[in-house]
Amino acid sequence: MNKSSSLFSADRTSTGLGASVNASLTRRPAATTRPNVLVVDDNPEKTLALQSIITELDCEVVVVTSAEAGLRELLRQDFSLALLDVQMPGMDGFEMANLIRSRPAHDQLTIVFMSAIDQSDERLEKAYTLGAIDFISLPARRPIIKGKLSAILGLQKETRRLETVVDEKARRLDETEERFRLLLDNAEDVGIFFVDTAGRVMDWSRGAECCLGWTASEMNSRFYGLLFIPGDVAEHVPEKKLSEARARHSVTFEHWFLRKDGSRFWGRAYVVELRGKTSAGFAVMLRDISAARVAEQELQIKAEVLESMSESVCVVDEGFRIVYANPAAERAFGYPVAELVGMDKRALNDYSPEENVARIEMLLAHFVEHRSWTGEWHNRRKDGSRFVTHTHLSQLEFRGTKYFVCVQEDITERKDAQAALQRSAELQEVVGELEAFTYSVSHDLRAPLRTVKGFAETVIQDYGDALQGSGIQYLERIRNAADRLERLVEDILTFSRLPREKLTLLPVDVAHVVGSILEETPSFRPPQACIRISGPLPVVLGHGPSLRQVFFNLLGNAVKFVPKGRTPVVNVRAEITGGEATIWVEDNGIGVRPEDHTRIFRVFERVAHPDGYPGTGVGLAIVRRTVERLGGSVGVESTLGGGSKFWIKLQIGRPV
Hints:
This protein is 42% helix and 23% strand. It is an alpha+beta fold. β15 and β16 form a beta hairpin.
């Protein structure tokens, strides 16, 4: 087909180069509000059609007829997308793309190639090499082209939106870091925090955690009056101090204050009113000025807290020797505290020697400019087992000696659970896609099947007299095959709909369900079959239409799978055990081998003389899936030639 052929056709598709999609999402957007799209093609018919499509996508379109003109347009303005015809007089699309990629200003431009003549693997590979996001084989249907371009432009738009969100979050983070850099540096012995105009905590420093005991997460949005003794709170001292600071811009006062553990201390507080373009509130600096005895009591309390913590805490000197370990560290690593003290902390890491050295060097470099580090760490216990911890390292100095405090929380189970959830979600997505595909394929098969069947019946009726015996037989085989395939399609549609249908479980009278099936199905009544109901059937918790499908399939199989010349005899009965009902459907049919008892409930599994009995192999799969969705179970007891006893178990429902 030559290049002048129509752009749109119902018989051709496009070849997508999906491997380049992720890379193209970060490419530079067009400068205008509406995306600019450059179309380079020497065929007026194609460019007119493409221009129509792109205009519908709310884009600006620039159309040129040669690669040279396209390069000039790229120098004049920015484009979100370039559609390049591969075969053009003079410079072709590949050569133009190569020049685009050589220019830094456009090396990330999103490119889509079009071609109506040669879509060989070599061309596709060349397109990949040039970083194209797609290769559209022409002619192609208009909806396909429009859908591809819409998806590409939509992804670019979403990428720009996400970049804006990231930039905004980065800006907010910079503001927070600036506040802490100005006010928190070298303030380890002062509790510094920020409150809003109502006195609710907005930011809580490490010094505040050390001095007062509450963590940032515990104090976030809580009223700072929590630090005052009950008598002062009752007299509204916290609110009064903020009012004084607002009137005088700052206030200094001394009072009794409370720590998280309930202990009191005499402290000096300095409250400064803050007013900025983006925030308003107060900065509070609180220092403990109690006597040395009070400071000693505080240290004792903190030691008790460390001893009772569930997280492992180790204090390590500059030589990486452990000088303190709490009981939680003994439980975490499997070494008694007496053994841990004096050990090289690096020996507890679960890294190769090279990686161990590299990670320690990374931490030391980090602590040149920072006082803490938080991240995941891999560890090894005394028995050799491995575990992962959420680790917080902080640096402190005591009497001229530097120490590292290592707080570790075992998160191995949490990570395993997250991985399992991820795998489950991925499997669920795959199953959903497969079910949707099955439904789509089955649905699309019905129309041509009916056409084949209709034409076969028409030929038999209109031209039956002119055909020989074998011709009539062939047409009847076609019609019968179409009938079988149509039943298969119906079963597949039923099976694929099961996971998507929402079921509301209500009490259902099984006797009524089975009775209505027998009344409405002549083939289930004498002389074709003898189906008996032995004893009362229960009311179960289920879904009426679904249970009707279940029993119709079970009774249908019981009547169908019997030796030739034998009248089907089926017995339906129930057993009640506690709050659970077991309903049996027993037949005198051909039976099932024990090794096939599980297999027959799978889709398309027909294990007993499939050529001698009609069916699709989906009926029992529908039974299994339906019963499981109702919260029950299904199974069979059978031997080959000895009949079958199918059973389903469901919860008892209240009487209807």
